[in-house]
Amino acid sequence: MKPLFTKGPSLGVRLLVLVVLSVALMVVDARFALLKPVRSQMSLVLMQTYWITDLPQRLYQGVASQFGSRTELVAENEKLKTENLLLQGRMQKLAALTEQNVRLRELLNSSALVNEKVEVAELIGMDPNPFTHRIIINKGERDGVVLGQPVLDARGLMGQVVELMPYTSRVLLLTDTTHSIPVQVNRNGLRAIASGTGNPERLELRHVADTADIKEGDLLVSSGLGQRFPAGYPVATVKEVIHDSGQPFAIVRAVPTAALNRSRYLLLVFSDNRTPEERANDAAQAQEAEDKQNGVAPIVPATVPKPAFVGPPAPPATAAPVATPVKPAAHSTRATKPPATTPAAKPPATAPATTRQREE
Q1: Is the pLDDT confidence value at 329 over 50?
Q2: pLDDT class of 159 with cuts at 50, 70, 90
């Protein structure tokens, strides 16, 4: 009796074909950029998977917020009001200091401080590879995200965008072994390079001289020398400095200020692409508009042109008699003859009288 269906290849052959196909795809993906469009399209499907996997947690949070007790909500509301009041007071002080700093930098003919534009993003996934520190956020190319864009949380810098997809992006964290960032000590401006160690709680400063002025507790901020991260953002805090007399460099370990394993909401920093001249012109125009709005516009032009006539404060009538007695005293009687203006102003009888007296 003939079988209704012909017998297909064995399971071993199928497994071998799938293994070869998988290896070929991995090699093509690693060596060439042919599969990047396919990966971008697959991200659209995977985004729905991320949303479905995150659905239980969001449902739990919604139910918990609905069934929360009234007393807890009232207490939390009072606490938030108090914190809001304190933060508003601090914000007013910071606003005054920022404005004062901007004015001082303008007086020093320096570039104006412009706050970077930021956008809130949410962490939706993590790389399962234990040897790489990468996360996935819910902002992609269609949201204006670019490669190399800095990412930070409420405490400090976290990393930079290394891969773009239409609606999502991959972020390489500071603690990855392939990542380094130029930093400087906030206390004295000492520059160094902070590299990842593979440990989410540790960074290392490479090639720091054994005699360098760095100690435990120093705050490390981004120096902005790499033209990738904006300057002045906190990166890490020095935890340990080991000096070895037999080694030219000290061993410096630091702890990242950002909560790399706990932050869920992040900030994407959009840097200012304007040239220094454009920033200076915009700052000058903004300052002029603010002065006009405050009614102090006439004061600025009045103080600028006045130093132009420092020389002629004395009237010409007083300058003539001062010059006439000094010049003849230093020269002979012949020096009194050239100034023909003084005899023209005075009677001719006075001129010979003065000359006779000086000759005697």
Answers
A1: no
A2: very high
| 117-155 pLDDT tens trace | 778 898 999 988 888 999 999 999 999 999 999 998 888
DSSP letters for 9-73: --HHHHHHHHHHHHHHHHHHHHH-STTHHHHHHHHHHHHHHHHHHHHHHHHHHHHHHHT--HHHH
Which are the contacts of 302, defined by CB distance < 8 A and separation ≥ 6?
Answer: none
In a domain, 93, yes or no: no
Question: What's the average model confidence in pLDDT over 108-116?
Answer: 47
| Residue 257 counted as domain residue | yes
Number of domains in the chain: 2
Residue 99: in which H helix or E strand, if any? helix 70-107
Residue 156 is classified by DSSP as S
pLDDT at 4: 57
CA dihedral 277, 282, 288, 292 (to 10 degrees): 170
Q: Which residues form the domain of 237?
A: 117-270
Burial profile 154-167: b = 16 or more Cβ within 10 angstroms, e = fewer: eebbbbbbbbbbeb
259 within domain boundaries: yes
Residue 334 counted as domain residue: no
CB 268 within 8 A of CB 118: yes
Provide the pLDDT for residue 7.
65
Q: Are residues 123 and 264 in the same domain?
A: yes
Q: Are residues 136 and 28 in the same domain?
A: no
Q: How confident is the model at residue 245 (pLDDT cuts 50, 70, 90)?
A: confident
Provide the β-strand partners of residue 253.
204, 240
Residues 34, 143 share a domain:
no
Judgement on whether residues 34 and 129 belong to the same structural domain of the protein: no
Whether residue 245 contacts residue 224, with contact meaning beta carbons closer than 8 Å, is answered with no
Instruction: Judge if 145 and 222 occupy the same domain.
Output: yes
The pTM (predicted TM-score) of the whole model is 0.53
Which residue spans within 258-328 are E strands per DSSP? 265-270
Q: Are residues 26 and 161 in the same domain?
A: no
Tokens of 103: 């004015």
Query: Reduced to 3 DSSP states, what percent helix, strand and coil does the chain have, rounded to the nearest 5?
Result: 45, 20, 35
Task: Judge if 34 and 158 occupy the same domain.
Answer: no
What does the alpha-carbon distance between residue 204 and residue 173 come to, in Å, rounded to a whole number? 14
